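Long-time lurker. I teach an intro course on protein structure, and each term I like to show students one example going from raw sequence to a predicted 3D structure in token notation. This year I'd like something fresh instead of my usual example. Would anyone be willing to generate the tokens for the chain below so I can use it in lecture? Attribution to the forum is fine with me.
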Amino acid sequence: MSASSPLRPALPGAFFAELAEATAGLRPPYAVVHLPSLRANARDLVRRAAGKPIRVASKSVRSRALLRQVSAGPGWAGVLAFTLPEALWLAEEFEDVVVGYPTVDTAAVARLASDEVTASRVTLMVDSPAHLDLIDAVLDGLGPGARPVRVCLEVDVSLRLAGGRVHIGARRSPVHTARAARDLAQAVAARPRLRLVGVMAYEGHIAGVGDNRPGPGRFLVRGVRRMSAGEIAERRAAAVASVASVAPLEFVNGGGTGSLETTSLEPAVTEVAAGSGLLAPTLFDFYTRFAPHPASFFALSVVRRPSPRHATLLGGGWVASGAAGADRLPTPAWPAGLRLLPREGAGEVQTPVRGPGAAGLRVGDRVWLRHSKAGELCEHVAELHLVEDGRIVDSVPTYRGEHRTFL
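-- Reply from a regular --
Happy to contribute to a lecture. Here you go:
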């Protein structure tokens, strides 16, 4: 797979020549963000959201500097974090942070409920009475000084067929129906120290699965999208109405980079979420409705020439999470005509490549690659070098560069 998709031609050599010239003084491995592409992607996400504010998904960015830059732009409002310790850290400067996943970190919950400002800025995700019990137990331990805790109820919008025997979508919340949502909302309302302020319903099987990959499988994906979209809209609206009958809601969050056009049209949804579309990793090369500009890259050194047809890079095993497969591996982007070896892939200490582009490589040359997922690239580098107009205009720390490792 190259740096192109059915909707976008391959990136030109001049693009990588600019990156190479700007970073000539750096020693690989290093990561680069092309600022004009990042800005273009941010504008396009806002366009696709059709007036609904976008909550930026921090796990797809993992750099406070980039989160600041994106959040300052029109059309963006709030942060969707992935752990509570991360949310507490971000809440030092961001006023609206929703934790996208339930937490069982009781120490972090205690920190949240002990500070009035933080408690007003951070919202916890719940989908079970067990989560409510855990939060309540922490509040009991804090005594009368505990601050009320804001919570958001997550509704499952995966597609279930054949009476539930077939499940399409991520295994997330057990709350699948409007009635179950109302029951949980009532359980929250019965606890005076918890404040139900939002609903989230994320259709990952639409937002995170490309519908334009080569091969016949894309037709199955498109069929699932068509089947799911209407059913999701109807069930999400019913769930939101049932929860709103129990408590007034500040927000209803849905969608992701791959589904902004459809999710933003639902009247029940007040905001959407996106993050991966900012950096456009390879998993987002294959969608029919949009073609983001690849904005993040990393460079590795050629350290071996085991044959005239092969070059070997130092390191490179920066494999993305999810079900193991070739689509989770980094993709050689430049020089053109490089590909990984099926039996070796991308390795911890070395990554061999072959193809027409390998013939001209020498020991000491650099190869540019793209990561499969967005924010996980930042787990391998301490900083991101921001390139514009052929030069590095800034170098900003990742979470790792600020000595923060949340997962």
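Some talking points for your students: Residues 13-33+291-402 form a domain with the Lyase, Ornithine Decarboxylase; Chain A, domain 1 fold (CATH 2.40.37.20). The radius of gyration is 22 Å.
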